[in-house]
Amino acid sequence: MNRRSCMAAARRALVILLGALLVLSAAGCGKDEPEPAQINTGATFRVAMTEAPDSLNPFVATSQAAEEFFLLAYDSLWRTDAAGVPSGCLAEDWSQSSDQLTWTIRLRRDVSFSDGTALTAEDVRFTFEHMRSSPLYGPCLDGVSGITCPDKYTVVITTQQVKGDMLYCTVPILPRAVWDEYRNDVTAFDNATLIGSGPFVLSQEPTGPQEQQWTFLARENYFGGSPRIGQVQFVYYGTESGAGRAVSTGEADAALGMTDVQMTTLEGVPGVQLIRAYLPGSQVWAVAFNTRSTFFQQDGSRQLVENCADRERMLNLSSGQSSMAGTVWASPGASFHYQVPNPRGYDPSAAIAGLNALGYSDVDADGNLEFIGNREDLVLRLYTSAMDDWSSTAASVLVEDLQAIGVQVSWRTTEGSVMQVCGPKDDWDMCMLSWRGSVNAVTSARRFCPGPDSLTGWTSDSYTQVYQQLCQCEDPERVNALAGQLQQLVYDDCPYLVLGYCSDIQAIRSDRWTGYEQVMEATGGLFGTGSAELYMDVEPLTEAEE
């Protein structure tokens, strides 16, 4: 028996084993009586990862790796494609009331979870009622005030105001029967089996070292069509060099989360296609200013620090060519990313002139600026986190440039998140932090909503008014325009100084696989697009195509 025959026999055995382990299927095979998962026995697509999922519980997880797993195992009412365009998934059709505050959603009747139980409206209700606490999915439920289930396949959602981003609520729908015993503390469940209605099922067979390898088996009877492969196998390599080497040698078929070093070493390797992706969820690196502090309460003070921020030098030293200088809070991979006209740049002389205008001068000729009124040195308190590799290098450049014009900096590094030491108080001036974006403009803009209890303490009636319009807007072009206004407002007042956008360098063995081109062209990336399209569409090259 050849190797391919052995693999096919092994997969058939796995199908039989999984069938025995699944809960008994529904009595019939009619439209309203879904079957348990039937496993596709096609090819294996092996992905090298540099980040392991922080949790398999969607109420706890925050990592991009976990979010990618949830895309495979679960479905949502609506899904977005690789271009960020929403369409119905579990929702077969939907309508709104005349005041647009009530959504009536009719579910598909041919959907089952991987344990064979039918997905119903009660599963949607349970999920929505509990998912508000999720750091990944909770923000998109803002404005939802109630949910009822008139019948088994109808969900009625009411909102406090018009909710323009409803179709972007890609909350993974969980099986109530599995989660119900944890309803008082949904964070306590390890969710190791990932029972969902999605196109793939997490295998419980040992396929590698514990917590280092995860195998997702394709569902042949998935209502959205069977994936073209048999399984996706994620392998955690821990280092970018290990992931890059795995692709280079053919041990892996694809890799994500690599750096410029791997970009250089993999260039020219036969059969390897490299992609530098800026995705909606790409990381944004920034400095937050505390507008409660004495110095940063002054008009124009924050922009003066920007005049001392040599972004290009910071990014070259901290990330090589895997990032680009930034201006606004939205990643360039988002459809609503805004291009600032005439952005401010690195200009130390402008910073000195501005500081002089605010009353700061080197009165005693010691090389440090003092406030003329009380002769006290200008000292800014900066915090960075040891968890953010990039921030220490970026901070050293900023500190050097500020000190060059006479501004002293008290720089402290915390072991945990800067959010643990910085917040609604006035004992800090600056902190370096990062965030991930979203295809949903509302949830992205929400992070910067002003208020005295926000991180920066920045207030802006204009931002609040435009944000309320954005929350209620359903027209895509108008959404992008409103999101652009919000980005311009933050840029002008500068409660956050955006330093750069981090790209996601990915690779795939183009000599083995096809079917992914449309995904790459749509977003610039294969993985991390917020879509399961790649995993559904990728397929082995035939001998003729090779």
Explained architecture:
A hairpin with a 2-residue loop joins strand 6 and strand 7. By secondary structure, this protein is α+β, with helices and mostly antiparallel strands. The chain is built from 15 helices and 23 strands. The chain has helices at 3-21, 64-73, 121-130, 176-179, 240-249, 260-266, 301-306, 311-319, 348-357, 389-404, 441-446, 461-472, 476-493, 517-523, 533-537; strands spanning 44-49, 78-80, 86-88, 91-96, 102-107, 144-151, 154-159, 200-202, 213-218, 231-236, 254-258, 272-277, 283-289, 323-325, 360-361, 370-371, 379-385, 408-414, 430-436, 496-502, 504-509, 513-514, 539-540. The longest helix is centred in the first third of the chain and has 19 residues, at 3-21. The chain folds into 2 domains: 3-236, D-Maltodextrin-Binding Protein, domain 2, CATH 3.40.190; 283-502, Dipeptide-binding Protein, domain 3, CATH 3.10.105. The two termini are 25 Å apart. Helix content is 27%, strand content 21%. It is globular and about 80 Å long.
